[in-house]
Design goal:
homodimer; globular; DNA-binding; 240 residues; alpha+beta; Chorismate lyase; two-stranded antiparallel sheet; 2 domains; six-stranded antiparallel β-sheet
Chain lengths: 240, 240
Amino acid sequence: MTTEAPLAFRPLYQQVKERLLNRLIDGTWPPGMWLPSEHQLAQEMNVSQGTIRKALDALTAEHLLVRAQGRGTFVAEAEDRRILFRFLRLTADDDSRQFPESSVASLRQRASDAGQRGKLKLDKGDRVWLIERTRELAGRPVVFEQICLPVALFPGLDQIEPIPNNVYALYASRFGLTVGRVTEKLKAILASETDVAELRCDVGTPLLQIDRIAYSLRGTPVEWRISRCLTDEFHYLSEL
Amino acid sequence: MTTEAPLAFRPLYQQVKERLLNRLIDGTWPPGMWLPSEHQLAQEMNVSQGTIRKALDALTAEHLLVRAQGRGTFVAEAEDRRILFRFLRLTADDDSRQFPESSVASLRQRASDAGQRGKLKLDKGDRVWLIERTRELAGRPVVFEQICLPVALFPGLDQIEPIPNNVYALYASRFGLTVGRVTEKLKAILASETDVAELRCDVGTPLLQIDRIAYSLRGTPVEWRISRCLTDEFHYLSEL
DNA sequence: CAGTGGTCTAGACCACATA
DNA sequence: ATGTGGTCTAGACCACTGG
């Protein structure tokens, strides 16, 4: 007589969802591509249309797919308005939503320090890219941020000129990495000397600091970003 | 011959969802109550079990219901751990989640000013309650907040002694108002004289200010709250 | 054991987009 | 007219809970 293992039960639609997700991860279905119809997928995977639907709906809820009645299902693109503002919570106080202009101040490669290795789950000896840039809203510098990326995931990044405004679209199109999830930790801090120069504010100005880690579809961290934001005329919007 | 109106199409499961939601709003099914089984509801409303399920699942996704396989479906309670931390995004930097202790400094009634009427959609002449309190995390004052409530929605609030730590549970149990949604606008500010006294910090300390409006199940604003938080050892967590 | 929610199927029909 | 996703149904079976 053996002790019964708890034996995990995995619903069929979850297995289907995983198989579909793998095709997104490995680039079989790149951003923008139209998927086969529900009927075709159901036939191909030998499950009912309802089961396919449940998997597609789940991926749609995670913003990885977009569905349109009468047209079909396609892979979400980082250029979409919906995606653009999903991770950009900073808004003018009058709620006029606009996408910020960016200007890169520097891009260089460095050996990773302990903090970066902890945030990005790197090993000793791994190298990182460091990007510094300021972002303008309403013609005014509002955000100064430092972006840290593993060189292993972004080879030859320094040969891309210029670094575009929307870096997540770049990650997807040039490096096959789709950002699927982000966690942000917010604090209030005082402007440092560097901040003062970049944001043209006074020493001691309170700034909103956003400490963000972005995860790929595989669930691995791909970007660590620290943003310092002027919030005299802007705010960070959170809906719960 | 008449011109055809565009005629909005409303799926059956949405109508069912609305009927169920109304029973939550009017108190037919108060927090904690067990609902009839899917089979019973389907019979009662003359729709299939699948349609009932879709409506129940939607309400569950909005955290208004809780479902448990083998046991049934019941109305979510504001005392639940899940609900407690849903609206409490402030966490210690070491991620040890704990619920803050609160001490009410004052509770008074006032005529509403223009700002309060705008936030809470009140009319001229409507009165409001004003609560001031500080909240402690890890035995240390961390949040100082002002809560503004329409007197019309919370009659006799000043006779409740003491005002409990979890006010949303109080709103539900004593005034039949369930908070279903919240929007928060975050800024970085400098500590004022009042903040300094309440939070035992220095003048000029940067604080995270949270401007929150809470909405009832009906979608009407029921609470306006401004919280000022020390973020030297704490942060606001946002997951996107 | 009976009763609950959770999964899965098969098929019909509806709303919508495109050609 | 055709093909897509969206809705709705009816029924079978599975997993879980509690008496």
